[in-house]
Amino acid sequence: MPITKEFRRARIKKRVRKVVTGDASAPRLSVFRSNRDIYVQIIDDNQGHTIVSASSAEAGIESKKVNKIEKAILVGKSIAEKAIAAGISQVRFDRNGYLYHGRVKSLAEGAREGGLKF
Predict the structure, then answer these.
(1) pTM for this entry
(2) Nearest CA to 22 among 3, 1, 48, 60?
(3) Which structural domains are found in the chain, ordered by start?
(4) 34-68, pLDDT tens digit by residue?
């Protein structure tokens, strides 16, 4: 049976989630990448709820005519602003099984530029 992309990503995701967990002092920054948009959440795993979230489908980001990598940078800066407003400065990055390049890397760099530490 051939290994599909979905199976491979699920296997990597389990491997990453064994190590990366979020708590009150450093919540988890989780990334989801669809073909069109990119979504990010800051999650406290101890309480099991999302603290803040951002996506490229938000009105301020979607209206800009830029490519997907530049949108990922804007989403990273947006989540950093929201996190700092919520009193979060330190997070743990969960790439969610995606390779750390392209849009995922751009999002991380945008979040670092916005002031998040990870």
Answers:
(1) 0.89
(2) 48
(3) 5-114 (3.30.420.100)
(4) 999 999 999 999 999 999 999 999 988 888 899 99
